[in-house]
Amino acid sequence: MIRGVRGAITVQENNEEQIVDATKKLMVQIIEENNIHAEDVASVFISVTDDITAAFPAKALRLLEGWTHVPVMCMKEIPVPGSLNKCIRVMIHHNTTEKQSEVKHVYLEGAVGLRPDLKAL
Fold first, then answer.
1. What pLDDT was estimated at residue 115?
2. PROSITE patterns per the record (predicted)?
């Protein structure tokens, strides 16, 4: 079964170092909490808000051992008025035997408020 694992994190500044570091931090935590192996990943989608333009967050995945050949796509998030600024969102599609309810989605920094319903689980 292919499952989607979601995550999000915010950055303070629109600069390459923060974008790459934050994305790497988020990816590492998602990978560890869900025991994801690169060879089981079909693809990764990464979206950013309009105020993140200094770097492709996908660069962070290339810093992770074994993730060189995983297909990654970066895109813009829908600019909904009042939505969270400087936010990087990730969706990993991977093969797993886990049930949907067992998937551990990860929200860090300013993004923790995006899915408060998941904190109670």
1. 80
2. CHORISMATE_MUT_1
